[in-house]
Structure formats: structure tokens, C-alpha cells
Amino acid sequence: MKDIAEDLGVSLMTVSKALRSHTDISEETRKRVLKRAQELDYRPNWIARSLVTRRTYMAGLVIPDLMHSFFAEVAKGVARRLEPHGYQIVISNSDENVETEQRQIEMLASRNIDGLIVASAQTTWRKQTIELLQSNKVPFVLIDREPAGVDANYVGVKDEEIGAMATEHLYEQGCQRIAHIRGAETPNGVGRLRGYKRALAKCGLKPRADYVVDGGRNDTEGCDGMLKLLALAEPPDGVFCYNDPVAAGAIKGVLDSGLRVPGDVAIIGAGNVHYSDLLRVPLSTVDQSSSLIGETAADLLVACMETKTPRQPKHTLIPPRLIVRESSRRK
Amino acid sequence: MKDIAEDLGVSLMTVSKALRSHTDISEETRKRVLKRAQELDYRPNWIARSLVTRRTYMAGLVIPDLMHSFFAEVAKGVARRLEPHGYQIVISNSDENVETEQRQIEMLASRNIDGLIVASAQTTWRKQTIELLQSNKVPFVLIDREPAGVDANYVGVKDEEIGAMATEHLYEQGCQRIAHIRGAETPNGVGRLRGYKRALAKCGLKPRADYVVDGGRNDTEGCDGMLKLLALAEPPDGVFCYNDPVAAGAIKGVLDSGLRVPGDVAIIGAGNVHYSDLLRVPLSTVDQSSSLIGETAADLLVACMETKTPRQPKHTLIPPRLIVRESSRRK
DNA sequence: CTGAAAGCGCTAACAG
DNA sequence: CTGTTAGCGCTTTCAG
């Protein structure tokens, strides 16, 4: 920048302003500066600029698992909306680990990111984490997982409705013994379970404790959960799984046991991951609009970042959508 | 930092050094500084530090598609190795778009990242891009896709061997009419095709032009490709697909046509994506050690970043591994 | 072992 | 429309 200024015999300030198309610079000077900058292949030093403007144009995205296609999709949605505004995205994998997550957030904060989107591994938001974020005045948006204990921007899906929708669908397909392979003790896991129970009640089926088994989040665990259910004296004829990977595992479990899907056991998942249609049995699911979640969160974050005054936290819940494929179709 | 200094009645410099555990600071002073820093919840400003040290401890990762589980896996591998060294990772999606990729790299470079890992969308490396990287002296490692036209660090897989391995396997399973749903005109696509041809020759099968169809990279395209093959007067009895998503689509195509896998058509993919085992027919594949690629690239990058003197570019090729599941098992 | 001086590359605020 | 002055928060260098 100094070089440009000297070459052109103007001051450094003029160059700085011209480069940023500041209004009060003559069209002609601006052109000359731009031309020379091009020639010298000049690129502004963002670090220096950030130091004085206090804006880094970096946004953080902390997610529990990039490999889970739900989060990959969310990440894409976020990127799609943030990049046009000039933000770069720093993605961190917390590996479902609260400690790691805390560290990552700390790192990001000390890098002065302008905003943060978090799908938290925490069930109850740590005081530590909140304070960190609030003291640094980093605007942030929570997605998918809403930890208790803080009123913050949140974009997610109506978990209870997912559970209810899936369960009712199984009932409508004629299932009478509907089980649930549940997720972890998180708001999502709990919400979906609640929806499941609500639907059972509504359909006049009575809840059975042995029809709710733990299944974690992935296919291995889903398969194990299913095997447990099949080992019951009276195995279920319909299973709502916490998410699609679990459901995929569950399908595997049924087939490996020599039974059929949906003939012997109808199965439905949640999340509509992109390969659902390619599974052993095309998987019925409840769509949670993954990339829309990402986009919505990103839009909200941009709004927060571009206004100075902190705004009222906003909750957005995206309504789920039933997608019926073969795994649950019995009629 | 200034606050700490004033509170303790020492100079700013002393604090700075104490915070970084510089050798020439008394143990006692160091403790006092650390304690006060803790109390004030002080965090170093990375921006300011970077401005003077010229190190940002950020590494860029540019990939064509986060949704493709291969790249998600690579990203995880990279993160696993880079984070322990204190680097944060800025991930950019180029969406298989050369323009976007160029822009992303430019952005990253002007943010003074310390190093870069790229799975390029470019077939022939643009002069522009090379110059950009070289002029900024950003060490970089290419992965998976090696664009022609530059001698650089590269970590990838032996594409030709993948093609040969897969094709020979089909032959050994008794397939006589082996087709290939090929990838794009990239080094990978071309390499795998070459391996396919080489294996045909080795097995004494004669190549047929109509047995090589375009299939892109994803399942939709894979399905289309398969339908084209099935429409031939003499459809193939074995198909090697460019990658697993394409193979998953191909399986769908076969089944939807009322044929069986592997009975009528044996299928094999490449990449060993994590859900391969859950597909309609568990997919045989050639594993390319995705996360190992990420890890290896990261290690190489760290080595480059930590040494001042530019080192000889290094090529690492990871040998592929055949994984036989149901989709190709005919014996 | 501690500190004073200088500056990283850039921009905000104000004065010509 | 252009330029001057000051400083962002930190580290490097060198002198106490």
C-alpha cells in the first residue's frame, strides 16, 4: 500500500480510501490507484484491517460431527448464506465432547470471530460458556440442539412433532406394537420421545417401558437397539428411530435377523439424510430441512452481526415434514 | 494486558513475556501475572499477535463438496492432526466450481493463513492460482485431485490401481461383460478408467466403447448411467463405478429395473463411504483411506509450515484396499 | 531478569 | 477531494 502511494505520489490515506471505494475520492485517483494495485498484485492485509476495525469477517461454526450428513448439510446451508456477505467460515468439530466444544469456542472467541453458530454437545449450557460468549459480545445462534439454561437465538426443529408425526404414521400403517429407539438425554432425544408417547396416547396404544430402548446416534447403535427389541417375547411391528443413521442400522438389524422390512417390522427415521433413498430398504423419514436450518441460522446471525444493538433473542422452529418411502409402507 | 501490567506495577513487556512463558522472567513474576490474567479473564488477541508474528495459526482447507462423505472424512482427518499443533481450520466449499475455488483461495491467502490443503476442482492448475500461492509463500498440499501443471506436495490414492483392482475382482467373480460408469475428465476419473482398461486387457476381455458411460459423481448420475447400460442389447454383468455414491445409484438402477445385484449385475464402487454397508445391497468397494489421506496431508503441511526453508515437494500415494461385500459376491 | 522504543499494515477522525 | 496524526494490541530488539 505504501508502494502504491509512493509510486503515484499520493498519500497512503488516499490509497486506503480509494481501495475501499470511499465516497470522497475523485474517480480519477481511484482508477489510478486500482490500476497500480492490480499491477503490483496487491492484496489488503486482513489482519491489519481487522485489528483496527474490530471486524474479522469470520464466523465460527461448531458442530458435533462433520461426518453426520445432517451437519454437513447444515454447514453447507450456513456457507451459502454467509459467504455472499463476505464472511469466511471456521468450522470446528467438537466430537460430541463438551470439553472440546468449550475449548473450540474459546479459541474462536480469542480469534475475534464476528459471530458463532453452535450445535452444542452440551445438554445444560455451562455458565462458563455463556459468560465467555457474552463477555466477548460475540453474537451467536444455537442450532438443532438447544441447551437448557440460556435464552438465546435458536433455530431448530419441532422435535416433539417429529416424534408424534412418525409414530402416528406407523399407527396409520397398521402397526399396533410401536417401539422407539431413542436418542441421548438431549432436548432432541427427549423431545422426540415425548412426541412418541403423546402419539401413542392419542392412538390409544399403551406405552410399554420395554419398547423404548437406547440407540445413540449412529447405525451401529441403531442395529444393537433393534436386536434388543427383536429379542423381546413380543417384538414390535413398528419402530420409530431417533434419526436416519439409527434407522439404517435398525433396518440392517431386522434383515440380518431374517425378518422383513416393512412386512415384519415397519421402520421410520428422522432427518432425511441424502442417502436415505439408497438404503437396503428406502427409508421413510421425517424431514427436518437440514440446509434450511443452516440458512436460517446464518441469516439470523448476519442480522445480529450487522446491527450494533443486541436484539431480542429469536426462536425459529422449522416444521417437520413426513416423507414416506418403502420402509414403513404397509398398505 | 495493559491492565495486568498496571495492576501489578510491572511493565507491559514483562506481562507479555510472562504470558508466553518466556525463559527470562522470574518464576514468581510469572505466577503473579498468570494469576491476575486468570482473574481478569484475559485472552490474548490473536489478531494483534498475528500482525507482528506473521503467523495466524489458521490453515485453510478447500474441498469441492462437504456433503460427499469422502471429503467430510478427509476434513476430520485433517482436523485431528492440525488441532493438536494449535491450528484452526477454515473450511471452504468450492462446489466443484473453478471460479469459486480461485476466489476462496484468494480470500484465504489474504487472510494470511499459514498453510493450505486443497482438493482442487481444477483439472489443469491455473497459472493464476499457482502464482497466487507461490507469491504469498503459502505452503500447500494438494489432496485427492492432482491438477496437471505444477509440481507440488500431493497426497492421494493410486487411481489406476483402484480401477484395476476393482475390475479384476469382478472378473474373478466370474463377470465376463464388465462395464465402467466413469467419473469426470479429472486425473481421478481418467486414472480409474485407465486401470479398468488395463485390467480388461490383463484378463483377456476386449474393451467395448459402449461399456464405458459417463456417470458424474453422485447417485442420481450413477443411476442414470446404469439405466443406459441396461438398455444395451447385451447389458453388462459386472460394473465398476467411479465411486460409492455412483455405485449406490447404480444399485438402485438395477433393482428398480427388476434385476438383482449381484445375481444379474455385480457392482463395485470406490471410496468405502461409511454407509456402504447399509445400502440396498451392501456395497463392495475399494477403500481409499479417506481419513488417512487427511491425516497424511496435515502432517505434511505441518512439516512445511514449521520449517522456514521450502522443502522438496513430496508425493505420497496411499495404496487402495479391496473390500468385498455382497454387491459383487457371486461365488 | 526487566523495560523502553519502535513498528507490524491498516483505518478513524479530523484538518486542510 | 486529500493528507496528517494517532493508535488498534501485541512482539521484537536491544539496552539497562
Describe what you observe in this structure.
The structure is a homodimer of 331-residue chains. With 331 residues, chain A is an alpha/beta fold. Chain A is 44% helix and 15% strand. Chain A is built from 12 helices and 12 strands. The first copy, chain A, has helices at residues 2-8, 12-19, 27-40, 46-53, 69-82, 98-110, 127-135, 159-172, 187-203, 219-230, 244-256, 290-306; strands spanning 58-63, 88-93, 115-118, 140-143, 153-157, 178-182, 212-214, 238-241, 266-268, 285-287, 315-318, 321-323. In chain A, helix 1 packs across helix 3 (27-40), helix 2 (12-19) packs across helix 3 (27-40) and helix 6 (98-110) runs parallel beside helix 7. The model of chain A has no long low-confidence stretch (mean pLDDT 90). Chains A and B meet through helix 4, helix 5, strand 2, helix 6 and helix 11 of A and helix 4, helix 5, strand 2, helix 6 and helix 11 of B. The structure holds a DNA duplex (16 and 16 nucleotides).
Write the layout of secondary structure elements.
The structure is a homodimer of 331-residue chains.
Chain A (H helix, E strand, L loop, with lengths): L1 H7 L3 H8 L7 H14 L5 H8 L4 E6 L5 H14 L5 E6 L4 H13 L4 E4 L8 H9 L4 E4 L9 E5 L1 H14 L5 E5 L4 H17 L8 E3 L4 H12 L7 E4 L2 H13 L9 E3 L16 E3 L2 H17 L8 E4 L2 E3 L8
Parallel strand pairs in A: 1-2, 1-3, 3-4, 4-5, 5-11, 6-7, 6-8, 8-9
Antiparallel strand pairs in A: 10-12
Chain A binds a DNA duplex (16 and 16 nucleotides) through helix 2 and helix 4.
